[in-house]
Amino acid sequence: MNLRRKLFFASITGLALIVSACGGSDTGASSAVLTEAALIYSQSLTETAAAASPTPTATVEQPTATNTSLPTNTPTATGTPPTATPSPTEEPSSGGTGNAACLRANFEIETIPDGTQMYVGKVFTKMWRVKNVGSCTWTPNFAAVWVQGELFSAEAVTAFTDINIYPGEYAMIEIDMVAPGPAGHYKGYWMLRSDDGRLFGVGSRGTEWLWVDIESLPPQD
Known about the structure:
With 221 residues, this protein is α+β, with helices and mostly antiparallel strands. It folds into 2 domains: 3-49; 105-217, Immunoglobulins (Immunoglobulin-like), CATH 2.60.40.10. Helices cover 20% and strands 27% of the residues. It is built from 2 helices and 9 strands. It has helices at residues 3-21, 27-51, and strands at residues 105-110, 116-119, 123-132, 143-149, 157-159, 170-178, 184-193, 199-200, 210-217. The strands form 2 sheets. Strands 2, 4, 5, 7, 8 and 9 form a 6-stranded mixed beta sheet that branches. A hairpin with a 5-residue loop joins strand 7 (184-193) and strand 8 (199-200). Helix 1 packs antiparallel against helix 2 (27-51). The longest helix is centred in the first third of the chain and has 25 residues, at 27-51. The chain is elongated. Residues 1-35, 37-42 and 44-89 have low confidence and may be disordered.
């Protein structure tokens, strides 16, 4: 029993003795004393509850978000690669030197699309159809010239017309080539050259290249 309750019971006992001393004949006084005692007891319970330490409540700790890197799927190479696999040649560092308004071609169609597969040693003919969209006439002294990359056993300089090609007309460039070995991916770059030695090509400024892009396969058994 705590101190408050002990004091309360001592007070009740004292009050009871006082009531008894008065002879107990004054029931009104007795009731008033008992009522006051009850109020004192109720107040003591309220103060005791207020003074009591609150019951601790469990605090749920929220997890802290962390950045987790997702695994990267790395493809695994399968099969046996060729003994030597050449990488495609990078584009030349500069384009044509011709005047775009005078010497300019537009690429139309081609044979042997990029990535065509053929066996090592296969002979093929690469063709580009181009249009004269400049203001100068192409004469029989114009040629297609190899610039960089794989030559494909072709002639480095190939004339492509024996007549004049006027602005708005077309020319067909045909070059015989051979699929090189060993097996792998090969690319070669070509441009056109005027009769006075200026290089030009396709594109809005006449400075872009024509190219050959094939994949050589191991020779057949």
